[in-house]
Design brief:
about 250 residues, alpha+beta, Butyryl-CoA Dehydrogenase, subunit A, domain 3, five-stranded antiparallel beta sheet, about 5% strand
């Protein structure tokens, strides 16, 4: 079974790398015009009644973009930890639903989600580095599994918070008779990374456990052989002493 460890390690690495790629598709949204990052956004809203706002407006990882068909355009300056907070984003309360006014809930949900995306990426990168050791050692597999598990934890938090603020925000806009829709690409990439990290964690842990039972069984058999050999030597010595006593 020890020969299967490289296979589990390789599969774990492949899934982990796939999850990191999916993360980048989300994290780079709003920064470039390349596909598929220019298709990735969390929420799109019709904001024709909001002064100075793009119509429609799309919330991406780095800011608010306009839309040209299915693609992000006119994204403007990049804003680190860009929150979803329409009154703050547009600098006005006019034309916005009352559900966004006087609350910091959406600001906090989106800010923490932004941070958790990055933390998940950092631990996923650590897991990729240690994943090379998972191909040949049990310790490397367990270390990679731990790093992947931490990445999974933060990615799940990011996905849950992103889902919370975007779904509730969409519902509030719709209740105000404004068209609003979720970004299926950002959702797919985000939750796809969760699935990839989960499977990667499982595979790394399986790779670490492979061969452990065989090693212990081998040690037990070796110990039994030594014990049997010792008993045989003792019996031989007793027989020799008896023969000598008979001749005497």
């Amino acid at each position: 079974m020890g020969a299967a460890r490289p296979l589990f390690g390789f599969l774990g690495l492949a899934l982990l790398a796939a999850g990191v790629v999916l993360q980048f598709f989300v994290i780079l949204s709003g920064t470039s015009t390349g596909t598929p990052t220019d298709l990735s956004y969390f929420l799109q809203v019709s904001t024709d009644g909001v002064s100075g706002a793009r119509n429609p407006s799309r919330w991406t990882y780095w800011g608010i973009c306009g839309a040209d068909g299915s693609r992000n355009v006119d994204c403007g300056a990049l804003v680190p930890a860009h929150p979803f907070d329409p009154p703050r984003n547009f600098g006005t309360d006019s034309g916005l639903p009352e559900g966004f006014i006087g609350t910091r809930k959406f600001f906090l949900l989106s800010r923490f989600a932004w941070v958790f995306y990055l933390m998940a990426l950092v631990f996923a990168a650590f897991a990729l580095l240690t994943g090379v050791l998972a191909l040949c050692t049990r310790l490397g597999a367990y270390i990679s599994g731990f790093n992947a598990m931490v990445a999974l934890f933060f990615q799940t938090l990011a996905a849950a918070l992103m889902t919370a603020w975007s779904v509730e925000g969409r519902n509030i806009f719709r209740a105000n008779n404004q068209e609003a829709s979720l970004g299926r690409y950002a959702y797919g990439f985000t939750w796809g990374a969760v699935a990839a990290f989960m499977l990667s964690t499982v595979l790394f842990c399986i790779g670490g456990s492979v061969g452990g039972r065989d090693s212990s069984s081998h040690s037990s058999r070796f110990g039994r052989k030594r014990s049997t050999r010792s008993r045989g030597s003792f019996i031989d010595s007793e027989s020799q002493r008896r023969v000598k006593a008979d001749y005497a």
